[in-house]
From TrEMBL:
Pfam families: Aldo_ket_red. This is Aldo/keto reductase. Residues 26-320 form the NADP-dependent oxidoreductase domain. CDD domains: AKR_AtPLR-like (cd19093). Keywords: Oxidoreductase. It comes from the Bacteria. InterPro entries: AKR, Aldo-Keto_reductase, Aldo/ket_reductase_CS, NAD(P)_OxRdtase_dom_sf, NADP_OxRdtase_dom.
Length: 325
């Protein structure tokens, strides 16, 4: 996305997989929308806050939203569906199917998708993903064939998986290829403080197969924003309180990464979070999907677009975050 003289921006986009839909190069993860268990929706923030996050994202050219049936037990999809009714802007929506033990037939995929589309108030979604690589009573072949049937019916435009290993990706890709449909996406955790996909084969398999990586928790749940430091240590709210990375010892370990993000950010007039997201976008076909609970966070995230780190800065960040690879 290039910046024009008046500060406006032209859209920066990425195609999902080999021939999937084109979406904004940065997305929005909506796990926090309607979720009161992990994110405490309804206490510190509510519907007007997330509506403002939706509108601020669109205003900044971020038009790709990732949700799931389990987020807020359907509430996230319902909220997104409500917000979509209030805009004429083109929006790409991704959601997910959770392979629970009692969902052991192909018809379960169709029924679950029907329920998601109803909550979203949409006839089709850009991307439909398998949330976890569980087999239970329905094998991957049956699952992939059921998803392929939905592409052929037009209710989903592309197929993705989430949290799949390299070998699981190859297997899913193989089953779909027999149906003449590419695997478009693998959604995995990826950030400067969680680089496992670079060493466990997932990133290289994605590049080999033409699969786009959707990076969830790209800001390491806020750790790379610079908000949490040893000097002003305050335990986070909610389930993050249990994460040892937010302890004083944990924050000491990540201090060099934060310092590097701040130094590079000052050079570009960007925040540590914007630098961290830009680093991810520089790793190839990677689309970060940071969460946004309000307009301020959405606008902040969008500041990762429209510019690029130098190769030297990319390498500097890769080097300082090497322990998390």
């Amino acid at each position: 996305m290039a910046e024009s003289p008046n500060g406006a921006t032209t859209h920066q986009t990425v195609q999902l997989g080999a021939d999937g839909p084109t979406v904004s190069a940065l997305g929005v993860g909506t796990w926090s929308w309607g979720d009161s268990l992990f994110w405490q929706y309804g206490k510190g923030y509510g519907i007007e806050d997330v509506r403002a996050a939706f509108e601020a994202s669109l205003a900044a050219g971020v038009t790709f939203f990732d949700t799931a049936e389990v987020y807020g037990l359907g509430k996230s999809e319902e909220l997104l569906g409500e917000f979509l009714q209030g805009t004429k802007s083109p929006v790409a929506v991704a959601t997910k199917y959770f392979p629970l033990p009692w969902r052991f037939s192909a018809s379960a995929v169709a029924d679950t998708l029907t329920a998601s589309l109803k909550r979203l108030q949409l006839p089709t979604v850009a991307l439909y993903q398998v949330h976890w690589p569980f087999d239970f009573l329905m094998g991957q072949k049956t699952l992939m064939n059921a998803l392929a049937a939905e592409v052929k019916q037009g209710r989903i435009q592309s197929i993705g998986v989430s949290n799949y290993s390299a070998s699981q990706m190859h297997q899913a890709h193989g089953y779909l290829a027999k149906q003449g449909i590419p695997l478009a996406v693998n959604q995995v955790q990826y950030s400067l403080l969680h680089r496992k996909i670079e060493s466990n084969g997932v990133l290289s398999a994605a590049k080999d197969l033409g699969v786009t990586i959707l990076a969830y928790s790209p800001l390491a749940q806020g750790l790379v924003t610079g908000k949490y430091t040893v000097e002003n240590h305050q335990p986070p709210t909610g389930a993050r309180r249990l994460d040892p990375r937010f302890s004083k010892d944990g924050l000491k370990k990540i201090a060099p990464v934060i310092a590097t993000l701040q130094e590079i950010g000052q050079r570009h007039g960007k925040t540590p979070a914007q630098v961290a997201l830009n680093w991810l976008m520089g790793q190839g076909t990677v689309v970060p999907i940071p969460g946004a609970k309000n307009a301020s966070q959405a606008s902040q995230n969008a500041g990762a677009l429209g510019w690029a780190l130098t190769p030297e800065e990319q390498e500097q960040l890769s080097e300082v975050s090497q322990p998390w690879r």
